Structure formats: C-alpha cells, structure tokens
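Notes from hallway chat w/ T.B., transcribed later so I don't forget. T.B. wanted the structure written out for a chain they're using in a teaching module, and asked if we could keep both sequence and structure tokens in one place. Agreed to drop them here.
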Amino acid sequence: MAELDDERLAELVRAAHRDTHLTVPLARILGARPRQRPIVVLALAAAVVVGVVMLGAAFLLLAAPPSHEEPAVPAPSAPVQGKPPRPTSSATTAQGRCADYAAGELAQAGLTELPPLRFEVEPVPGRLRLLMYADDSGSTACWLGAEQHAVQVGLSDLTTTMRPSHPAGRLSNASSAFGSEPAAAYTFGRAPAGVTRVEVHFPGGVVREAQVDGEWYLLTGAGQESYDFSEITKVVAFTPDGPKELPVRHG
C-alpha cells in the first residue's frame, strides 16, 4: 500500500472537517504527524477487519435462538432376567422328591399339595420313572430321571384339551411327553365306575391296552413308540353298561 503524503492527508482532513472550525492549525497537525511505514498501515487495516468480523460473529450468537436440547440422561439398564433356580430335594423316596419338585409348580397353579397318587411306573426301566397324581379337578405328572426331572401340572400338550378335568362317572383323557431324553410319553384318564378294560387306539388300526386301577387308566410309551402318542385317535372304556368312547383331538 502507498504511503499517504502531506498534501493528500491535508485534503482528507479538510474534507472530513469541512463544517468544523479547527482550533489547531492544519499545518501543526501535519507537522506533528510521524511518518507511517507501510507495514504499520497494513497492521491497522488488518486490526479493523478482525474487529468487524468479531463484532459480526458476536451479533450472530446473540441473535440465535436459545437451544432447548435436554442433556443426555443415561437410560437405566434393564434388570437381568434369569431362570428361577431349579427346585431341589433331599428326599430319599420318589414320592418325597416329587412333592419337593412340584411345590413351585403347584403354587403357580393355586394349589398347595399334590392330588392322590394313582400310578407309579417306569416307562424306561432304570432310567425314567413316572408318578401320576389326579383328582376330580385335574392331574399332575412327575417325571424322575437319573439327572433330570419334570413336573407337569394340569397339562395335556399332546391333545387339544390343555387343562383337562377328571370328574367321576365320565371318561376323560390327558396326554403328554417327557420332553427330554430318554423319550417317553403317557396317556391317562378316568373311566366310569366298574370299568374292566381300557383301549387306546392309534392310526392304522393299532390298539394298545392300558393299565387300569379302579376308575383310572394309564398307558406309557418309550423311544420311537412314544412319538405315536401325539396321534392317538380315541380311548374306549369297557363298562358293565357297555363300551364308552372318547375321541381324542390333536392340533
């Protein structure tokens, strides 16, 4: 940038103060002015530009609407949902173990104790025992394996009757499987008084005879044979008044 000489500066002062009465002679003003170096003029100009930019930025910040964003709050972590501990038993008998294992399942069903025991059998000799408990309102199956056990309260998951009852004088049925290894299943129910034989019918004309104890009957199967229990077609009870038939529906 070119340096301003005295004549040019005098013109600028006269133009700026054309309507002003100067008490200090213009010559004194010019005579007292030190010679400006080009670098000083550039520095002054740069300072002016920086000041303007800073003033503009401050204006924009003041004019901007306030932010309404809420501070991030960490979401509470969900509680860890684990499986309830499996029931244990220190009993030395099969019935004692079933009573201990069934306590939690019975409580969830609103019951306080097991119904009377109707059958105790071994579908898989030496490996799996089944205890069937029942009364008018329903049945409970207790499976006891070498390493696993299962308690099924009011369950009939191999038929469409999920919570069957067993009122006196009627033919009823509940069928379910162990659901683990070794594979096993049962079909169980009540028959009218005086029943002498109960037959369980499978597809293809296959008929198997169930155990009968008083008014109650039970048929079990193991291994491949147990898979057929999901296809039982009907149960027939032979009584002094003639055969009583109960169709079994699935799915």
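Follow-up for T.B.: The first strand starts at residue 117 and ends at 124. Might be a good example for the class.
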